[in-house]
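Example is below:
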Amino acid sequence: MSHATLAFDKNALDVRSDFPSLTQSVNGQTLVYLDSAASAQQPNTVIEAVQQYHEHDHANVHRGVHSLSHRATEAYEGARDKLCGFLNAASRREIVLTSGTTESINLVAQSFCRPRISAGEQILITHMEHHSNIVPWQILCEQTGAELVVAPIDNRGQLDTDALRELLTEKVFLLAIGHVSNALGSVNPVREIISWAKDLDIPVLVDGAQAVPHMAVDVKDLDCDFYAFSGHKMLGPTGTGVLYGREALLEDMPPWQGGGDMILEVRFDGTVYNDLPYKFEAGTPNISGVVGLGSAVDYLQAIGLTRIAQHEQALLEYMTGQLAGIDGLRLIGTAREKASVQSFLVDDIHPHDLGTILDHQGVAIRTGHHCAMPVMDFFNVPGTARASLALYNDRDDIDRLVAAIRKAQEIFA
C-alpha cells in the first residue's frame, strides 16, 4: 500500500491521499466524490499494478512458453487465488473470472438454468433488484416458458421477508437476490433467506455488487450456490468481475460461450472442454484488469473489511442525519439495515438539475433511476439523487454535499 498508516480520525480512515483522482479540482472546487455505488475510485496500488503489467509483463496468458507469458499468467492466476481467499471459497476452481456482475448473472441464467428449467417453474427475485438481476431472468423465461415472480418491498425500501418466504415453494427453480440494493442501500438478510431456500432445495444466486466493497463476504458462511460481483465497485478496473459457484454445480454446467482457452481439444467431430474454471472463460481475458482487481483485494484486506464497514456505517448515519435536517428534502429508502447509499429528492427540483448544480460546486452524485426502474415506479418518482460512500469519504464530504444542496435550493427559490 502507498500509505502504511491507516489511522482513525473522528471515525475516518486516513486513506484519501491513496486515491490520486480525489486530489483534483472540478469547476474550481476540490472534488467530493459521492458516486462510488456506480464506480469506485482506484488507489495508487491498483493503478501501479496495471501499469506494471503493461510496461513489463504484457502477453497472452496460459498459452506461451516465453517469460512474459509466464509472468502474465502468474499475475492473472495469482489474482484468482486472492479472490478465492477474499470470498473464503473452498477452491480456486469455484472462481470464474468474468467482465462483471452482469455477465456472471447471465452465465448462470443460460448455463445453469436454461438447460434444466421447465415451463411453469419459477425464478424468484425481489422488487429492489438492479436491472442486471431482472432482465437475464426475463430473457430466460421468454426462452423456456418459466415464470418470473417478484417478492415485494415496503415503503421504507425493505424486503418483505414474510412475503418472500411464502413465495418460496416447490415451483421455484432458483432464487436470485441482491445482497445490498444499489438504489436504496437496503441490506437483505441473505444468510437467513438462503437457509429458507435450502430447506426446500432451491438454489440461490446472490448479486453482491454493492456488498463486497463494504463488508466481509464469506460464501461458505452464507451457504449460497452462486455469488456475483464486479471489480469496478471494489476499487478495481472496469470490465472485471467474478462468479463464485459451487464446484459441483459448475462441473455439471455446460459452457456458455465457445472459443479459445475453454477447450482442451478441438476436432470437427467434437470438442473436449477445459477443466474448471476455464471452461467458462472463452477468449483472451481482461488480463491487466484482473491483475488490478487482485491488487484491489490486497488493498481492501490490508485495511480490513470490518474497519471499512465501521467507518462507512458511521459516515452513513451522519449523512442521513444531515440530509434529514434539510427542509424540503425527502429521503428515499430508510431501511433499518443499510449500507453506504442514500437516495433523496429536494423540493420540486429535478434530480438531473440538482446533480448539475452540485457538480458546479465540485460535488459528484448520481441522478436518475440507477438501473432500478421498478424501485422508482414503487416510490412513484422518475428518479432520485443518490449519494454513495466509500472508505475514502469523510465528514467534510458530507458537509460539502449539504452546503451544495442548500445552494441549489437558493438558486431554485
Observations:
- Residues 47-301 form a domain with the Aspartate Aminotransferase; domain 2 fold (CATH 3.40.640.10).
- The chain has two domains: 16-30+304-412, 47-301.
- The longest strand covers residues 172-178.
- Confidence is low (pLDDT under 50) at residues 1-11.
